[in-house]
Amino acid sequence: MIREIENRRSIRKYKPDELDRKLIEDIIYSASLAPSAKNRQPWKFIVYQGEEKDKLVDVMRNGINSEKTTHELMPEWAFAIPDAENTVRIMKEAPCLIAVLNTNQHTPFASIENEKRIVEICDSLSIGAAIENMILTATGYGLGTLWIANTCFAYNELMEFIGTDIQLTGIVAVGFADEAPVKRPRKLLEEIVEYR
Fold it and tell me: Contact, 148 vs 170, CB < 8 A?
C-alpha cells in the first residue's frame, strides 16, 4: 500500500478509454471498507459515464457560469472560478465520474447547531477516508484520479440534477492517465510533527 501512496498523483488529463464495470465496483468496494465514526457509513456513490456523465458536466459548467455572475454561494472565493472552469474540462475528459454523497447531511450552506456540526465533521472525515481508499485502489489498478471539490460553485444545480437533498461532498474523476506528473513537494516531517 505504501507504493500506491507514493505513486498517487492528481491527474488532470485522461485517455478516452472506458473503464470496466468490475474495476469501478472494486474501487467503490474499497471505499466501503473505510473506517467511519460510530460505524455510520455515511456514504453513497453515483457513477456517471457516457451521456449521463456529459449531462453532469454540462450542469457543472452552467452552475459555475451562474456563480460567476451572481457570486451567490462562494463570494469570497470568486478568484477560484477559473480553476473551477478548468475542472469542467477535466471532468469532460475523464471517462468516469463518481459523485460522493453524505447520506446523513444536507446542504453545507445552511447553518446548523454545534452538535450537528460535530457530527457533520465526523461524517466528512469518514467520507474522506472512503475517498482515499478509492483513490489508492485506483492507483493500484494503474488508473488516475482527481478528487474534485469545485462542485461547491455549482452545488444547487448539481443537487437538482442528481435528484437528492443529501449532501454532495465532491466528485472523483477516474480513468487512464494521459500525463505523468512529477511528485509534488511535501513538508518535511520536522515541520509537521511535534513530540511531547
Answer: yes
pTM: 0.95
- Give the model confidence (pLDDT) of 135-186 as tens digits: 999 999 999 999 999 999 999 999 999 999 999 999 999 999 999 999 999 9
Is the torsion defined by CA of 53, 58, 59, 61 positive or negative?
A: positive
Q: How far is CA 73 from the centre of its chain?
A: 18
- Beta strand residue intervals within the chain, DSSP E: 43-49, 96-102, 144-148, 167-175
Instruction: Check if the beta carbon of residue 167 is closer than 8 Å to that of residue 52.
Output: no
CB 13 within 8 A of CB 112: no
Measure the CA dihedral 65/68/74/80, to 10°: 100
Tell me the CA distances in angstroms from 36 to 71, 101, 140, one per residue in order: 34, 14, 23
The cell for 134 is 478509492
Q: pLDDT, tens digit, for every residue of 20-49?
A: 999 999 999 999 999 999 999 999 999 999
